[in-house]
Amino acid sequence: MSNETTVSDTTAMTDEQRDEAASKLVDRFSLWSGAAGLVPIPLVDVAAVGGVQLQMLRRLSEIYGVPFSDNMGKSVIASLAGSVIPASTATTAALGVGSFMKALPVVGTAIGAITMSGISAGATYLIGKVFIQHFASGGTLLDFNPPDYREFIKAQKEKLTGRSAAAPPAGASTPSARPASTKGAATGV
Asked: Considering the entire predicted model, what is its pTM?
């Protein structure tokens, strides 16, 4: 089984199959990004996470048949991360402190690894979801405008924090799969 998705493979996919494949890809790369955040060397962890995010964007581009270049991908990820995802100086500070805490023996390494891992996984997830929405609506890397996705990111963050803060009771009925038609909706679950 090949891990590479070619343009001919994606043209045979329905929109629902494409969205499902993209969501699974984002989930997988979010885990890889969290693992990259565990790298114990300050700043190397940040570079590793950036590499994981760039590869995720490359693969999403392939799934949606969007032209991709490394330089454009780096620029778009940096602009999205810089203009939308931090949303506060606290997140930016946590990222920097998380990486530099690893320079402190034992305790600093543990705190830095946990901080970087969580922030990296969450940021990669949000970046992936934004690009799924953008590419699914016919967008390309050239016409991507990060501020257009602020409300979408806010809804995704609320969904993530709501999911982790209040797990439903064992007998409660919850939607296990979301139909593709709900992507882009700015409502929380």
From this structure: 0.70
